[in-house]
Amino acid sequence: MTFCSMPASLLYQLEQELDTDEKETMLFLCSDLMPDVSVPDVLQLLTTLNEKEMLSTINLSELLYRLKRFDLLRKFLGTGRAAVEANLAKHSQMLSKYRVLMTEINEDLDKDDLRSLSFLLKNHLGTSHKEKSFLAIITDLEKLDLISPMHLDLIENCFLTIHRRDLAKKIQKYKLESPAHFPTMNTNTLQMSLPKLSLADPPEPVNKERVMNGACAVQAEQIHISIPETEVQGCNKYRMQSKPLGVCLIIDCIGNDAGLLVKTFKSLHFEVHCRLFLNMDAMMHDLYETARLRAHKDADCFVCILVSRGNNQHIFCTDHIVPGFQLERLKDFFTGERCPDLLGKPKLFFIQNYVEPSNWQGNASLTEADGDLCTIPQVADIFWSHCTLDASVLERSPCSSSYYLSTLAGLLMDPQKRKLPLLDIFVELNNRVYEWNRINSTEQYLLLLKHTLRKKLFLTDKDFSS
Questions:
Q1: Looking at the chain, which terminus has fewer C-beta neighbours within 10 angstroms, N or C?
Q2: Membrane-spanning regions, if any (predicted)?
Q3: How far apart are the first and last CA of the chain?
Q4: Which residues lie below 8 Å from residue 77, measured CB to CB, with a gap of 6+?
Q5: Burial code of 383-402, b = ≥16 C-beta within 10 A, e = fewer?
Q6: Helix (H, G, I), strand (E, B), or coil: what is residue 325?
């Protein structure tokens, strides 16, 4: 069959239509086609492919289809999406499935994902890749022979670690569809491909032999649970007898409440780790290292307190990175999956977020949060208290304490109040904040309280002195 080359004018016009990200994607998609030829830009790539008779109408259509530039398919080639999909189903594809997979994953990643990946891969790539795109990171890993079409475990494990199971499943699906390249999946790999359970998902029976939260031993070989973390049968309150009770991590990027918080949780017999004025990278590092502490194994509880500027769903830390760190991900560091020593144990999160004026929304006349505030992932044994306050308060009174945090500290340090279940303490906290908002119209606190506790939680025990 005679090959018909593409007019140079068409290639030039097409290249002019692409933005920087699309050009990077095209170069990545085609990098296997001419491994011995250096192509510094897209125009040179298209020209070289054309000269080598590799740029037929079908192949160019495939390229534009993978870029999702269906408008250019119509404009330059007179075809449409459905026609290209039909051709791809009938003919062999020019682009490798591996590179197509990587570009599809690239489209699904946000800045928080990239920041987390950069942190996990810094031992392999150093810190110079922090501002690089996902495709640039993959290219660097390929150069180090850490990833290839036949070796994807590294990046798959990274996605599992940052709780992007959807992306890990794409890699697992690719492996299953390429049996010649990959060994048969073992039981552990198959288990990792299962969907993450929610509170409503009935899981398969599991073998239970270990004692969770130090309270009750389960004798039955198999039991059914209705939550994704271990259920302890026959107990109506969490065990809170370890000395110390657990680790309390305080990250305060404002600096007005750290001293009171340290005093409060030391009085509750926690091992307190206080970090002040952290930037985003330092905070990520501290969260990662705290989740790895061996102290969790013998402890009965974990507490994380975070104070920062931000918006309703993110915090900015001291370097004010926008959009910032997504609060939804904070607790992911400490779930049983990432931190097995905390499996079945209560994990408490107290957030004071000073919302920047441009992001402030809603009427704070009541202490309930609107739907724009972040919610927690549906895993067991989480207690999530999130308070937002207009950051303009810090401009008016730079050294002022948070009424939410100071009231919380006061209630927890009251020998009588802290004998109550934690949820009862928060009823009192809500009432006090409600009264504050009623009297102070210029300093309105918005509270969000959600939890997946399975038992009553007391932050003291009769074996402890008050």
A1: N
A2: none
A3: 89
A4: 57, 60, 61, 64
A5: bbbbbbbbbebeeeeeeebb
A6: strand
Planar angle of CA 414, 418, 421, nearest 5 degrees: 155
Quote the longest CA-to-CA distance of the chain.
90
Neighbours of 223 (CB within 10 A): 14
Average pLDDT over residues 448-462: 88
Cβ–Cβ < 8 Å for 257, 246:
no
Pairwise CA distance, residues 331 & 198, whole Å: 15
Whether cis (ω within 30° of 0) applies to the bond prior to 195 is: no
What's the rounded Cα separation, in Å, for the pair 225 and 294?
Answer: 27
Lowest mean pLDDT among 1-10, 30-39, 101-110: 1-10
Contact 355, 204 (CB under 8 A): no
What is the token pair recorded at 432?
């006090």
CA-to-CA distance for 319 and 313, rounded, in angstroms? 17
For tokens 């999909």, what's the residue?
85
Render 240-280 in DSSP notation, one character per residue.
---SS-EEEEEEESS-SSHHHHHHHHHHTT-EEEEEES--H
Whole-angstrom Cα distance, residue 247 to residue 245?
7
> For 106-143, how does the pLDDT look when each residue is reduced to its tens digit (9 = 90+)?
999 988 889 889 888 888 887 666 678 999 999 999 98
Q: What are the phi and psi torsion angles at 118 (to 5°)?
A: -60, -40
Contact 88, 76 (CB under 8 A): no
Q: What are the tokens at 146?
A: 């850490």
